[in-house]
């Protein structure tokens, strides 16, 4: 069993927080295929302090998805801690503090990854949150704000403080904040953290698109687990395949029929939240992942990216995933 504070996880494969993706439908499908713990998309701390806003279903977890963590970000340690209390009351099993988000509008407001330039603020935010809630508190970082000596020094200060202060786990993405999503993730820093702080529970992320790569990173780095992000979008089978390799078995790829069944289930869940054309448009970003396994994925991409009507979308699924003939 892998432990994060009081939580016991059955395997080391977690669903990373992805804004605009990891709402309930994606989380529950990841769980079905073996994901040990899922995280919400990053949520602004102040939202939880507005009674009307927090009543929205998108901020709530459901009874059938535990364990699930709320990932929050902000710029004021006091407000971050207050937000953690609010999300804990909503039933979340863990609080994850995001100090990694590289989105420009987040950085301009001095939140997310910008905080990596202020180790003392991160320390205060963690300490206040740790003292305010009765559940594990973790944090998400990048390997530095940038590749300057000052950026690297700040990173190691954050890690050392977190170790001293009793963080329950740290997730580290192998890119700098400045890199955003460009270039390749550098896993050497993730590996170095685990070697220097073997008692810390460390999760790595970055460029984990398939099960063999995931297992290679786990074995080479010696870390405790991984956070699966883009590789799991439209691909909940990634968790099943990772678990198979982890257990010494060869993973079985999903049949076309299974792919059609799961993506339609995902689509229908989205339709309940965003009915009609709005839901079709929203689901396109998931279809990029779902069609990745198709033999003719390049031909399938255009019709799925241009369809607007839900009935026509369902018809396309039948055509491209083999349940209907393609005229």
What does it look like?
The chain has 327 residues and is α/β, with parallel strands linked by helices. The protein has two domains: 2-246, Aldolase class I (TIM Barrel); 256-320, Non-ribosomal Peptide Synthetase Peptidyl Carrier Protein, Chain A (Orthogonal Bundle). Helix 10 (256-273) packs antiparallel against helix 11 (277-290). 44% of the residues lie in helices and 13% in strands. It has helices at residues 24-32, 51-54, 77-89, 104-108, 119-132, 149-165, 188-196, 211-221, 237-246, 256-273, 277-290, 297-306, 310-320, and strands spanning 2-4, 7-9, 13-15, 37-39, 43-44, 68-73, 94-98, 137-142, 169-173, 202-205, 225-228. The protein contains 13 helices and eleven strands. Helix 3 (77-89) links the parallel strand 6 (68-73) and strand 7 (94-98). The mean pLDDT is 94. The longest helix has 18 residues, at 256-273. The strands form two sheets. An eight-stranded parallel β-barrel has the order 3-4-6-7-8-9-10-11, surrounded by six helices. Strands 1-2 form a two-stranded antiparallel sheet.
Helices and strands, with pairings:
Layout: E1 2-4, E2 7-9, E3 13-15, H1 24-32, E4 37-39, E5 43-44, H2 51-54, E6 68-73, H3 77-89, E7 94-98, H4 104-108, H5 119-132, E8 137-142, H6 149-165, E9 169-173, H7 188-196, E10 202-205, H8 211-221, E11 225-228, H9 237-246, H10 256-273, H11 277-290, H12 297-306, H13 310-320
């Amino acid at each position: 069993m892998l432990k994060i504070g009081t939580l016991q996880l059955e395997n080391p494969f977690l669903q990373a927080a992805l804004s605009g993706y990891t709402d309930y439908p994606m989380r529950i499908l990841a769980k079905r295929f073996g994901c040990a713990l899922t995280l919400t998309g990053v949520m602004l701390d102040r939202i939880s302090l507005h009674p009307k806003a927090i009543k929205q279903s998108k901020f709530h977890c459901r009874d059938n998805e535990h364990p699930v963590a709320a990932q929050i970000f902000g710029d004021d340690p006091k407000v971050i801690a207050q937000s953690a209390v609010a999300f804990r009351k909503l039933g979340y099993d863990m609080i994850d503090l995001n100090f990694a988000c590289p989105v420009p509008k987040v950085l301009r407001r001095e939140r997310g990854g910008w905080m990596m330039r202020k180790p003392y603020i991160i320390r205060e935010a963690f300490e206040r949150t740790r003292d305010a809630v009765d559940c594990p508190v973790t944090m998400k970082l990048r390997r530095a704000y940038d590749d300057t000596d000052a950026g690297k020094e700040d990173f190691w200060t954050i890690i050392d403080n977190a170790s001293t202060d009793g963080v329950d786990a740290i997730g580290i993405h192998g890119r700098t904040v400045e890199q955003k999503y460009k270039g390749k993730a550098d896993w050497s820093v993730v590996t170095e953290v685990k070697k220097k702080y073997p008692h810390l529970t460390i999760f790595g992320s970055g460029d984990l698109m398939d099960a063999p790569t995931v297992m290679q990173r786990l074995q080479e780095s010696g870390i405790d687990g991984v956070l699966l992000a883009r590789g799991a979008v439209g691909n909940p089978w990634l968790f099943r395949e990772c678990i198979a390799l982890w257990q010494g078995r060869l993973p079985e790829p999903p049949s076309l029929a299974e792919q059609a069944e799961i993506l339609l289930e995902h689509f229908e869940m989205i339709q309940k939240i965003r009915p009609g054309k709005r839901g079709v448009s929203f689901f396109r970003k998931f279809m990029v992942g779902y069609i990745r396994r198709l033999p003719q994925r390049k031909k399938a991409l255009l019709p799925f990216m241009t369809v607007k009507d839900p009935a026509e979308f369902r018809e396309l699924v039948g055509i491209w995933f083999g349940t209907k003939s393609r005229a």
